[in-house]
Amino acid sequence: MKAIGVIPARYGSTRFPGKPLAEINGMPMIQHVYNQVKKSNELFDVVVATDHEMIRDVVQGFGGNVVMTSVHHETGSDRIEEVTSLVDGDFFVNIQGDEPLIQAELIDAIVREAKHSKNELVITAKTLIKDLEDIDNPNIVKVITTPEGKAIYFSRSKVPYNRSGIMHSYYKHLGIYGYPKSILKKFVNLQPSQLEKVEMLEQLRLLENKIDVQVIETTYDAVGVDTPEDIAKVEKVLGGLQNV
């Protein structure tokens, strides 16, 4: 099984235009992400998928692989599906371009799970929510699964609602996905589903169309960059890691 790591990098962003090129400790964010992903032992190759020449030039400048994709894609999944026509592979891992601290170990775990499932499932990840305020935060997507790890539902709401008051753990869904090539092509050609439009979560389109999603658990918790103010948070974490 040939696994390809794909980092979608869109230039246009309402809250943070040119975000992939924002400097973190003097290095473009897209380079931080690329360097982290390249540490993976399970990926056959890593490629940045962008819609802008400036990002292409920066990636080529630091020696990274990059492909130009359409400016009309609405989601990262749509962009990665185009990559499947440009790069040879069987399993494509969608790695967020605004997570400069992404762990190669998580990527490797997703690829190993795909190999274990004979490349027949979509694979994603969850992590235990430790800050109780995050449970009610609609910007933190929650996931519930079967005991075997199959996704039952993703929601911005607090799921499940704990009416009984018994001890229960809540899990945050991490925005990393691994797709078999055939399932990805099927997925992007499906019409947005009703629950997807209500929650504004495209992964619900998979569940509503009876496409199984396997969820692995990790201790990694994403530190994403959504606004310019988030740069300082990442630099603080990087500073702490360098001092260890």
Name the beta content range.
Answer: 15-25%
CATH fold description? Spore Coat Polysaccharide Biosynthesis Protein SpsA, Chain A
Considering DSSP H and I runs of 4 or more, what fraction of the residues is helical? 25-40%
CATH superfamily: Spore Coat Polysaccharide Biosynthesis Protein SpsA, Chain A
Enzyme class: transferase
Protein name: 3-deoxy-manno-octulosonate cytidylyltransferase
Pathway: Nucleotide-sugar biosynthesis; CMP-3-deoxy-D-manno-octulosonate biosynthesis; CMP-3-deoxy-D-manno-octulosonate from 3-deoxy-D-manno-octulosonate and CTP: step 1/1
Pfam families: CTP_transf_3
Describe the model.
The protein is α/β, with parallel strands linked by helices and 244 residues long. It has one domain: Spore Coat Polysaccharide Biosynthesis Protein SpsA, Chain A. Helix content is 30%, strand content 23%. It has 8 helices and 11 strands. The strands form 3 sheets. Strands 5-4-1-6-10-7-11 form a 7-stranded mixed sheet, with helices on both faces. Helix 3 crosses helix 5. The radius of gyration is 18 Å and the shape is globular. The model has no long low-confidence stretch (mean pLDDT 93). Keywords: Cytoplasm, Lipopolysaccharide biosynthesis, Nucleotidyltransferase, Transferase. It is found in: Cytoplasm; Membrane. Pathway: Nucleotide-sugar biosynthesis; CMP-3-deoxy-D-manno-octulosonate biosynthesis; CMP-3-deoxy-D-manno-octulosonate from 3-deoxy-D-manno-octulosonate and CTP: step 1/1.
